[in-house]
């Protein structure tokens, strides 16, 4: 998984700084955690830079003690490891290149025992590559199940003030989220035809092609039927007092994926980056947790479940095409379909962008 994360983040996380020679090197950086809990930080520059990289560590992304670096490395080495056996607290890092250029970075994935697919949407650049989404502001995840004692500490360390729960009423009744210090805002977007799909799976009357079409229809309904609910959810991000915010649904993949996509689009993050963020769910959803769903089902039903548990870029691309066909552009959909004005977008940028 670490290798896949490195490839993903090298494509998505780009740090741009100006060097003394007036050239503008491109610096790509990533922070991931290994199985022990150590943080591996890698970077590369184009053109190559010489000098020293100083690394600073903090429990928050906006307060570093610049008098106490935790590590040093030659810039051309391109890698440093922050060694720790602490799997409870979350660390952020400030990279300083020759004491002139600084950038904050963190590990995107947040390890949890009772929450699938929990990750930070910080570190994404806008189209002009002038501003970056701040770390520790917005998280996305699947449903919060029973929290372990370690999870409770981890959640407290995230300082989440607001949880936007996109699950339908029946889902919340079946799997109520455990009490947290955060204010929970329920904006239900129910799963359509769930009982019908469940029955057809049990009866062995569905194939993976049916599952694919069902998921396509689900994503299209986000635009044609659920825009009002997604609009309500986006309005929550306009209040500074609500941050940090966690958005969740059953897996943190579909409804959360669409909401996160629209939020990033409102921040002028490129479509390619948005789709990459959406597809990252495939790296952070542990399918072994859902093996029980297919134990007594035939092969067709098992394959259908696998299709529905995965993120598929064709579904998100289909949504973007639908939006552009119906509204002319993503920007028009934000303003006319989701009622996010230019002023609202400026507010979002002021709050969320570095």
Structure description:
It is a single chain. The chain has helices at residues 2-12, 149-158, 169-174, 194-202, 208-224, 227-236, 255-266, 271-279, 281-284, 299-309, 313-327, 330-337, 342-352, and strands spanning 14-16, 26-33, 39-46, 52-58, 71-74, 79-82, 92-97, 101-106, 119-120, 138-141, 162-165, 183-186, 245-248. The chain is of the alpha+beta class and 354 residues long. The strands form 3 sheets. A 5-stranded mixed sheet has the order 9-10-13-11-12, with helices on one face. Helix 3 links the parallel strand 11 (162-165) and strand 12. The longest helix has 17 residues, at 208-224. The chain is globular and about 65 Å long. Residues 8-21 have low confidence and may be disordered.
């Amino acid at each position: 998984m670490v290798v896949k994360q490195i490839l993903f983040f090298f494509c998505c996380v780009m740090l741009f700084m100006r060097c003394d020679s007036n050239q503008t090197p491109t610096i790509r950086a990533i922070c991931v955690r290994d199985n022990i809990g150590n943080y591996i930080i890698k970077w590369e520059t184009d053109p190559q830079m010489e000098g020293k990289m100083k690394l600073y560590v903090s429990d928050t992304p906006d307060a570093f003690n610049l008098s106490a670096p935790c590590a040093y490395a030659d810039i051309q080495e391109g890698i440093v490891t922050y060694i720790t056996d602490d799997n409870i607290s979350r660390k952020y890092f400030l990279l300083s290149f020759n004491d002139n250029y600084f950038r904050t970075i963190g590990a995107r994935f947040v390890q949890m025992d009772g929450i699938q697919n929990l990750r930070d949407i910080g570190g994404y650049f806008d189209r002009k590559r002038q501003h970056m989404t701040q770390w520790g502001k917005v998280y996305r995840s699947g449903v919060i199940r029973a929290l372990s004692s370690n999870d409770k500490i981890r959640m407290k360390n995230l300082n989440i003030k607001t949880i936007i729960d996109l699950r339908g009423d029946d889902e919340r009744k079946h799997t109520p989220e455990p009490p947290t210090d955060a204010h929970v805002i329920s904006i239900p977007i129910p799963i359509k035809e769930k009982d019908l799909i469940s029955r057809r799976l049990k009866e062995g009357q569905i194939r993976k092609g049916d599952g694919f079409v069902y998921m396509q229809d689900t994503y299209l309904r986000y635009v044609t039927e659920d825009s009002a609910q997604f609009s309500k959810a986006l309005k929550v991000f306009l209040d500074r007092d609500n941050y940090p915010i966690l958005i969740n649904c059953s897996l943190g993949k579909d409804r959360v994926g669409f909401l996160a996509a629209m939020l990033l689009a409102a921040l002028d993050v490129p479509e390619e980056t948005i789709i990459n963020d959406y597809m990252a769910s495939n790296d952070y959803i542990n399918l072994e947790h859902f093996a029980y769903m297919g134990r007594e089902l035939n092969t067709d039903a098992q394959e259908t479940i696998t299709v529905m548990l995965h993120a598929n870029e064709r579904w998100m691309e289909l949504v973007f095409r639908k939006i552009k066909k119906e509204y002319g552009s993503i920007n028009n959909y934000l303003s006319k379909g989701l009622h996010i004005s230019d002023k609202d977008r400026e507010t979002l940028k002021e709050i969320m962008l570095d």
